[in-house]
Amino acid sequence: MATYIIRRLLLVPVLLFGVTILIFGMLQFLTPVERSALYVREIPKNERQINSIILRYGLDQPLYVQYWRWLTGTKDQLTGERNGGILFGDFGWSRTGSQPVANLIRTRFPNTLDLTLWALGPVILVGIWLGVQAAVHHNGFIDQAGRMFSIIGTSFPTFVFGLLVLMIFYANLQWFPPGRLSTAMTVVVRAASFKSYTSLLTIDSLLNGRFDVFIDALRHMILPILTLSYLSWAVFLRVTRSSMLETLRQEYVTTARAKGLPERDVIYKHARPNAMIPVITLAGFTVVGLMGGVVITETVFDYPGIGKAAAEAAQQLDVITVLGFALFNGFILIIANLVVDILYAVIDPRVRLS
């Protein structure tokens, strides 16, 4: 097991190098003038200032020199200040956020992570349970209803379902509002007496003993979680059902039943664990999608996560910010793949022996 994990860990730097090469290659589609936006906070007033920036940061140098400086940073020959480079968290200046891209990610990511943590249970666990029930009751009423549910869910565009629940539960019933917090609770959170321990609003509200803030924050997340859950349940149901049906036909399952084991033990102790390999893959990519910011969902519900920030940057052609988010999402994807590979080995010993 340790050897397997070490092999996977050794692949991480290689994959990270590949991601940086890809992002840097995308930057080359921009002219040196456009790439100079990485290093300035205000638009240069004339061509002389632009040329000065290009020379100062080596944007006219060979590609390998530019790549190394982009990674490790450069030293300003005029001021002596050093730009950190992406290895030190310097992704450039966000024109839409009016702050460094790293600060924008640091500000928005806790909101997305908060939403992810609360959505994981409903999205994954309920989806797996629905798929198992559909497989166990193969061709029965539950299976037929599950298949109909899956077809409707996979064919429903995210923004349509989001707008539908927004009209029902906010416009008509006034139960669950969009956004992050109500105005009154925003005042409480921004007060000096409210301490930020984790930057996750729901957890910090509990640690501060402000259950009113916790309830308000949770109310604002109900509709995004419902939208993400419904559309994910359809996919999890189909994948889990298919994998479970294949597993239930295996000889070891027939043998377990022939030995007289209770049907519940056959399903949940023998069949379900072995049917989880494709489901784990789907769960891993689902987590990556959630943590990377669900752009449409956050935009529809005006939820201030990194998905909404990326959408705003794209709308205003803020390429530097968009590529910064792409680099951040690539890092999340690599880490998620590592976790999925390790979970494979935990569930199925044959994986780590191959």
Question: What does this 3D model show about the protein?
Answer:
The protein is an all-alpha fold and 354 residues long. The protein folds into two domains: 2-94, no CATH class; 103-353, MetI-like fold. The protein is built from 17 helices and four strands.
Can you tag this structure with a few keywords?
single chain; 354 residues; two-stranded antiparallel ribbon; two-stranded antiparallel sheet; 4 strands
Structural class: mainly alpha
What CATH architecture label of the largest domain applies?
Orthogonal Bundle
Uncertain spans, ≥5 residues at pLDDT below 50? none
* Average pLDDT reading: 81
Mind summarizing the main beta sheet? 2 strands, antiparallel
Query: What would you give as the CATH superfamily of the largest domain?
Result: MetI-like
| Rounded radius of gyration (Å) | 25 Å
- Termini separation comes to 11 Å
Give the ordered list of helices and strands: HHHHEEEEHHHHHHHHHHHHH
Q: State the share of residues found in helices, binned by percent.
A: over 70%
CATH class group of the largest domain: Mainly Alpha
What is the number of beta strands? 4
What is the fold-level CATH name, i.e. the topology of the largest domain? MetI-like fold
**What percent of residues are in strands?**
under 5%
Summarize the structure.
The chain has 354 residues and is an all-alpha fold. Helices cover 72% and strands 2% of the residues.
